[in-house]
Structure formats: structure tokens, C-alpha cells
User: What shape does this take?
Amino acid sequence: MAIYVGPHNQVGRDGGSFQECDINTNTHTVIRKYGRYCTIRDNEYAPPTSVAGRHWLQIYRTPDNTE
Assistant: This one.
């Protein structure tokens, strides 16, 4: 299941590739996606978005190291 984070929020162990989007936080549905992407490592904070009120939607989660 994909997660979404706001700017300056920590992702915990769910680092990966994210896409900027508008989300209805009441119903957890994506309204619109934008062509802005970022990579956030585990336990890092999300970067700012280009417009206030947008979120980062996870499109790929980096797998855990099993070695």
C-alpha cells in the first residue's frame, strides 16, 4: 500500500520514490499527480513541495536489506 507524506514529515522505514500530488486527506484519494519526483531515504524528512497543500505520494518503496 502506498503512503503519502506532507512536506517536512518523516517517512520512517518507508523510504523510496515519491511523486508530488494533490490528495483529499479525508478520503485518502489522489486528486491530481504532478511531474515532480523525489527520492526519500528511510528515516529522512520529505522535501518541500512546489505549492503549499500538496503531498508526496509513494510510487516505489525501497526494499529492506535482508543480508
